[in-house]
Amino acid sequence: MEENPFREDDLDMRNRPEACVLVIFGATGDLTHRKLIPALYNLAADGDLPVGLKVVGFARREKTDEIFREGLEELNKKVSRQGHDDGLWEQFAQSITYHESNFNDAEGYHRLKERLDKMEEEGASPNRLFYLASAPEFFDDILLHLKDSGLNESKNGWCRAVVEKPFGTDLATAQHLNQTVNNTFQERDTYRIDHYLGKETAQNIMVLRFANALFELLWNNRCIDHIQVTCAEHFGMEGGRGGYYDKSGALRDMVQNHLLQLVSLIAMEPPADLSADGVRDEKVKVMKCLRPLTPEDVAENVVRAQYTAGTVNGEEVPAYRREDRVDPGSMTESYVALRIFIDNWRWEGVPFYVRMGKRLPKKGTEISIHFKHAPNVLFNALSGAEAMPGNVLVIRIQPDEGISLGMRSKRPGPAALLQPVKMDFRYQTSFGKSSPEAYERLLLDSMAGDATLFARKDEVETAWKYIDQIEDAWHKSSDPPKMAEYPAGSWGPKEADLLIEQDGREWRRL
Ligand code: BG6
After folding, report:
1. Is any atom of ligand 1 closer than 6 Å to the C-beta of 366?
2. Distance, CA 359 to ligand 1 centroid (Å)?
3. Which partner for 109 in 121, 128, 145, 206 could form a disulfide, CB atoms 3.0-4.6 Å apart?
4. What is the per-residue pLDDT across 274-295, written as a single tens digit (0 to 9) for each?
């Protein structure tokens, strides 16, 4: 075997990523510069990149290989997780080339085929990984042309497609895209990205639950009162994002994919095995048990809101409707809060409160599992005990990745006084290094043929089916629920507080 120039191989239990030619569509875009190339560079720095990997950037703009690499290098210096080493970059960048073509130009794909065939003759891998990182409106064109030009098949190796989000904008468009993808690539060769699944902390949810007997015994409606999933972001529509976001909104942008995936991981039954389908079968079962919503249920269980002008981290920021590229009369939500029920044996009666908002006071994603209180006798009968937080297990997805368990303790001294305390596990302290970026793991897995951390066709469609009920109640009903407001820099609208407070509970502060 050829020697890895970056570091020794370390064996692990996963499939081994195989060398391939990675063709990135939309190579001049932000995702390629900010996420994909830095992820590959950091894999190279860790010695995990398969030897012989080649990258071909496919995009419309006129560029030479050198100019393309320079642009990538500039961004890598700014965002790379492990810094930027000129020597390593030099070596890594040699594997990157640029292919100029419009996405709907058949001739560009024929040239690409000739180019890949020639690379193969010269010793490059016959395996081909096509990464759709362009604007989503080009996904159809790209897939059809890959098929027409015969690029979806390789005589001597495998061909796979990685499809970025958003995977459709509703059930109908997701079904259409699924059909186009499956006409071009087999389902087992299709990798639908949900980068939350690549986050170490999200992967650890299954380990926490199924590698420790302790939690699993308590993980049900007998012991759990409710669950909260919060994703807060302090930023708004910077960098021209308003154009995309205003057509999407918090529900479609984050809940349909990332947050419903977190809910599934928390709520799923133990899978039969750790195969991609074993895990995804169980996740999809959770989605199928989400309680259906009538328009009246939507009004009662879902709050949507937009931010008004305010102050975030000491900086004055405009209202959502005043943001760059946002329609001044926009009815797109920058915040959403939901009360979700999962109608199955394990979760009957346990609400999942899920919220996501832009321009909140800080960035952070966490899941909190709120256990039922011990009986109100003995210590819990003491004054003040009722209002004190009980056992809450918090899974901090990001930042400050970790898990903490809150409990009540006796305060030292002669009096029987209780005080809430917590046991805390922090990745940084326990493992002494930062976790890899989600894209590092996902790129490796797609090269290894492991689809466990990618969304399957039925998962995506089932999630859209649920979300469509809400979108329809908002946009198609004659009496849509109102759009609430919250000042930028606050923790969201009072209507969302009411949603949880009317159940006698409150949102956990991050
Ligand atoms: C993306 C959304 O999928 O996820 C963004 O489109 C959001 O709006 C981002 O900001 C959040 O990702 P992360 O990894 O920063 O939590």
Report:
1. no
2. 13
3. 145
4. 999 999 999 999 999 999 999 9
